[in-house]
Amino acid sequence: MKKKNVTACILAVAALSIVCVAASIANGSRDKKIKEFTAFFDVQGEEIDEDNEIRELIAQKTGARCIEQWLSGKSAEDAVASFIASGEYTDFISGSTILYEARALVPIDAYWDNYPNIKNFLPAELWDRFRQPDGHIYWIPQFGVVHGKSAEVLHEGEAFWIQTRVLKWAGYPQIRTVDEYFDLIEAYVAANPMMGDEKNIPFTILCDDWRDFCLENPPQFLDGYPNDGSCMVDAETQTVLDYNTTETARRYFQKLNEEYKKGIIDQEFFTQNYKEYLEKLASGRVLGMVDQWWQFSYAVNNSLERLADHGCSYVPLPITIDRSVTNQWHVKRGAELSVADGIAITVSCEDIAGAMQFLNDILDEEIIKLRYWGIEGVDYEVSENGMYFRTPEQRVKSRDIEYKNAHFCIYSHFPRIEGMLGDGMNAFSPEYQEEEFLNGLVSDVRECLAAYGCRTYVEMLGTNEAPGPWFPMYSFSEMLTQESMAGRVWDCMKSVKNEYLPRVVMTEDFDAMWQQYMQSYKACQPEIFFDAMQQELERRINISK
Asked: Does 318 share its domain with 220?
């Protein structure tokens, strides 16, 4: 653990105004010794101000703060490799099999008896899924742990997204298939080629590094399966299926090839990086794309809200390959719990007990409310019947970037308890509180949802229960390493798809390129990987009995 001097110098007590709150926090910093931890997360994130007000308030209440570091300038794999090569780590890190095998992590379960919020974060049978070969648990899931009822308002997963202006222009049609989706975009851009002085981008694809799942995995959804990630599972026969070689996969990529030749698909999609992709979305010019909500929304929504009058916000559509297929794009929150990674404490941490206490404390309900709702009377109000809400002014402030950086500290990649707070009425976060969600919608989204008779993004897609105790299977495939034959085959499959699928989309001769792709894919011997997946599927089913 690294310690730094805390600088603060204002008077007062906790208050109703932000000035008073900040003063109280800073004054307390002098009076109480605050432990300071560091954390590295292998994703891009937003830096908050050094004297962030709620981080300091949490520090006063817990006796600790954490300085978060985010991925910048290199790939996640390279960043982790650099840590391993040096043998020096931050106190907290995004735990993974690679770091476990490098002996870089501390076993959480060896200490958690004194930290009930951690030990009781999951029931024992779910914790067992996180045990590594030595029998210990080394990381805590950050997302998807729901206590009590979950408010189904946001669709944070993958979908075909489209701007509201396109749907409004067409009279809010019922779009259900890939062909209907691209027919609509083609018609719109033919009638509306420009946005101001710049050309609209009808459809773009993100395929930068590991983010190429936006290109390669839609066939599983188009066939009506949920996000098992690396495979499909036939729930009736309990059999693992390969979505890469299906007729639906061929049809989908042939469609992308046709749209690329027409100029509908961004001609720069293969060369653009993640930052450039986000810049295009933030400009409002991109009409549609396939992506996970979390991957673009936090970075571009502020920009798109300023373009709400132009209808540039995105909504999800329940797209499948044919209308006869029922979609499973959205599975209820809490069902998709990945065991492949989570927050971990490293061997470089000099105060493991303090780090465990910090994790334990930020799971307290009082701290959860501070992280996500903010300060009562400043960031939200409480009605006579106990419901939390924001005033219009508070909603505007909550979206202001400068204010967020100076004031809010959600510790976004530390564990959180989702679902309802202890009162059973309020969601853990404003964006999951249905009335607050509705009141906070920008005008074009509100109009679009109303046109379809919906109140939430989830209602645009429908909600599905988890298909079985195996779900999601990607929590197994993501833990495979080069130590196993299945892991080596899995890496080969990913490399082939990364190399060939952009070429499949851009080629002049689709049939020849598809055949070449399939030959290279089959040369990886994917049956070895899918045999391992089948064994894991059966293991999970047997454990659940």
From this structure: yes
